[in-house]
Amino acid sequence: MKKLLILSTMLCIITATMTGCSENTAPENNTPTDNGQDTASSAPLSVEEETEEYTDVQPASPPVSTENQSSAEEAPAAESDPHSVDRLSLGGSHSGFVTEDGSLYVWGCGFEFQLGNNEHTIAESPIKILDDVEKIDFGFENSAAITRDGSLYIWGKFKPVPAEPKELFINPGTPTKVMDDVKAVSLGDVHTAVIKNDNALYMWGVNSKGCLGNETYDLSDTPVKVMEDVSCVSLGFNHSAAVTSDGSLYTWGSNKYGQLGNGKSGENEAEAEPVKIMGNVQYVNLGGQHSAAVTKDGSLYMWGKNDYGQIGNGKSGENEIQPEPVKIMDNVQYVSLGMLFSAAVTKDGSLYMWGENGGGQLGNGESGNKALWTVPIKIMDNVAAVSLGNEHSGALTKDGELYMWGNNSLNAVGETGTDNLNISVPTKINITGNS
User: Fold this and answer.
1) Domain annotation covers residue 332
2) What stretches of 203-249 show up as alpha helix (H) in DSSP?
């Protein structure tokens, strides 16, 4: 797909400030979709800008499922392969996928070197960047990969941009090894976190609102040990979360919009060290300014900013904040959060999505400021993993096929056979060029 370079350049610059939020309110309630899940009754990273007025109007058309996908009844009831979660990652306007042989392919906007090919460019076709890759995580304008030997590689724009490279404040144009013995990585907008092989959590970067969790507000250009015995970590715009092996969920950093889940919110609310929020947690994932946790029994809880219905509790609007965890769904295997929208995969492989839908990123055939959903809506079946970016989405099926949709103005979705900027339904993407 060929796009006008000038247009793409302007869009890439605009995207670099993330999609803005409306300052107009929307109705609090909508008609929940009958999705068979329990909804409540009650993780690029942005500079917020005014947009046109929106209202919480739901599409008249029913949710769509991808063609040639098995029904929920036909899909295996087995849980998703945990490794598949780390094979797909979406950044602000770029995407990456790891094939079964460990080859990492990237595409989309690379104007901050986030593609790893040392070029300020937009990749219309997937580019192979690394071999022997085990896991990946893409931030807004940066990228990270862990190879099978535990080596951590980073590339792209890591804030703050240094006058000269210093320790881990580097912004490489190609994958650069920075650490050994790493088992997990998460990228925030201004900070980075890794779990080492001994399960210790280390962090570095800008320490806005205490998001490094080391009891200070000072930036760190070297890794700071934050916690022991950590099984999962996720970073948002300027807040952080980790789960320990006993299922305890801790959060820290900015709490302006209740994204820490401790029942508080406000301009000056922040925590500079980890605070326990809940127990029995299996997995945590953070969006720009909202958060989600899946418990060991498959219950999905969410909290934080809810202006576009991204919490999934049936509400939305300028002042909507959920400052403590609220239960959204049952039987959830995995959750992924984008900037202003959310997704969950249930244990039977059903994909549900909700929140902002300006670029068609919910995958239900609709797009635009008035197309948001405030409760989970079923999109497709047979899903193993999902990843969300700024305004685009991707799902890996249990058959190993990749589907993507959403805003494709910077080719973050990939080659779709159409010049439409918004791809509003899941579309199969051919990564390696093989049929």
Assistant:
1) yes
2) none
User: What stretches of 157-207 show up as alpha helix (H) in DSSP?
Assistant: none
Global pTM value: 0.83
Output the domain CATH number for residue 150: 2.130.10.30
Predicted local distance difference test score (pLDDT) of residue 83: 53
DSSP state of 421: S
Contact by Cβ (8 Å): 129, 106: yes
For residue 249, what are the domain limits? 5-429
User: Residue 411 in contact with residue 10, Cβ under 8 Å?
Assistant: no
Distance in angstroms (rounded) separating the CA atoms of residues 349 and 362 = 17
Q: Give the tokens for residue 16.
A: 């670099």
C-alpha closest to that of 368 among 358, 376, 354, 377: 358
CA dihedral 355, 361, 362, 366 (to 10 degrees): 110
C-alpha distance from residue 96 to each of 136, 174, 372 (Å): 8, 14, 26
233 in Cβ contact with 224 (< 8 Å): no
Contact 48, 387 (CB under 8 A): no
CB 157: neighbour CB atoms within 10 A? 18
Tell me, what amino acid is at 349? G
Cross-strand partners of 332: 346
Three-class secondary structure of residue 215 per DSSP:
coil
CA angle 211, 264, 326 (to 5 degrees): 100
* Residue 136 forms part of a structural domain: yes
Cα angle 367, 371, 376; round to 5 = 110
Strand partners, 195: 184, 201
233 domain residue, yes or no: yes
Q: In which residue ranges of the chain is pLDDT below 70?
A: 1-84, 433-435
Q: Count of H helices and E strands in the chain?
A: 2, 28
For residue 220, the tally of other CB atoms under 10 A from its CB is 19
CA proximity to 386, closest of 428, 426, 334, 424: 334
Tell me if 350 is assigned to some domain. yes
Q: How many domains does the chain have?
A: 1
Q: For 310-353, how does the pLDDT look when each residue is reduced to its tens digit (9 = 90+)?
A: 999 999 999 999 999 999 999 999 999 999 999 999 999 999 99
What is the Cα–Cα distance from 191 to 219, expressed in whole angstroms? 9
Cis peptide before 160 (omega within 30 of 0): yes
